Amino acid sequence: MIFLVVIIVLALIFDYINGFHDAANSIATVVSTKVLTPAQAVIWAAMFNFVAFFIFKDHGVANTIAKTVKTDVVNGHDMLLVIFSGLVAAIFWNLLTWWFGIPSSSSHTLIGAFSGAAIAFGGIHSVNPEPIIKTIIFIFLAPVIGMIIAFIISLWFIHSFRKGWMPRIIAMIIFILVGTFLYYNLEFSPAKLKTHYDSYILKVIFHSKNFKWILLASILLIMASFTVFLNSLNANRANTWFKRLQLVSSAAFSIGHGGNDAQKVMGIIMAALIAYNPQVYSLNNMVWWVPLSCYSAIALGTMSGGWKIVKTMGTKITKVTPFEGVAAETAGAITLFVTEALKIPVSTTHTITGSIIGVGATRRLSAVRWGVTVNLLWAWILTIPVSALLAATIYFLLKLIL
């Protein structure tokens, strides 16, 4: 029992470190564009990290993480030892990369370390290949998707500054596409709507699956409405409006960050609880305090900030203006919401980095500092194998000691 408590505490410590390590993902652009002061930005991001607790209720990403290691191969005390080794390695790598200001992925650190310790216990057959392969694929896909979406949104904004009917036509197309998407993806069946509201309309809106899409759709509709009259504003007025929109887009990204990253630790804690007592605990019935504690830990971590990484993300990749900040954060939020719905554990770090590169590329390719970007890419590629090796080493040391 004491060992289980130690593991849960370590998991929440990792979650807290994840918060301040990845705080830059949510606040780098709003700080670099001076929309918010650093102190205001971390409070803003932390608040919406925790808001995700009330939105993401299906915990698909948590289930994917928990199933990374095969429970029929690794279970009981052995599973607890594997999780412990993985958490120690993940915490060490996160602190090391934070110290050097490298925006590596906390998600990939955790997955790599968990897998590495399991392989050290029972070989390569101890891990499920599906979640590992998905994660590795999205090391490259997540930033590319974020970059493409950010590039498209930036071009949309740029063309909206011009006089003529084209911005209005594009806005109407966005309205139609968003409306069509909501019609086919929202849950309307009263029997499946799970909320505490009596009103049918409120049940539809606040049903967990629906609310995620309604929130994202609202942001896109706000931006589409804004682009209709953007060409009638002078540069100063447009900049003021983009600063206001950046608060909305950064809030959306923070919700996506909380919903994606907190679930990974939830999956680790549930794997430990199931290993400890499989008769009492299961992934289908998550204990209420697990999501509450994980969302609280990541929000507190975000409030602590991660200023070294903020500098890298907000200024070293490319110079970001308020309208580019809106484009990058919105692109990042779309990517995170979609991948969460697909139960794919992606890196918020990779996603927002790709989005920032995308907005920089709309000016010219030379506006992106590719030397910094290449260094970040190496850190991303190395994170999973290095974390796995660290966890395997820690596991072997623990076996020797015990």
**Mean pLDDT, nearest integer?**
81
Uncertain runs with pLDDT below 50, 5 residues or more? 312-317
Q: Strand tally, please?
A: 0
State which percent range the strand residues make up.
Answer: under 5%
Gyration radius from CA atoms, angstroms: 21 Å
The level of helicity is over 70%
Structure overview:
The protein has one domain (2-401). The chain contains 16 helices and no strands. The protein has helices at 2-21, 23-32, 38-51, 60-66, 76-99, 106-122, 129-160, 166-185, 200-206, 208-228, 235-276, 289-304, 307-316, 322-341, 348-361, 370-401. Mean pLDDT is 81; it is low at 312-317.
What labels would you give this structure?
402 residues, mainly alpha, 16 helices
Brief characterization of the structure:
With 402 residues, this protein is an all-alpha fold. Helix content is 76%, strand content 0%.
Write the layout of secondary structure elements.
Blueprint: H1 2-21, H2 23-32, H3 38-51, H4 60-66, H5 76-99, H6 106-122, H7 129-160, H8 166-185, H9 200-206, H10 208-228, H11 235-276, H12 289-304, H13 307-316, H14 322-341, H15 348-361, H16 370-401
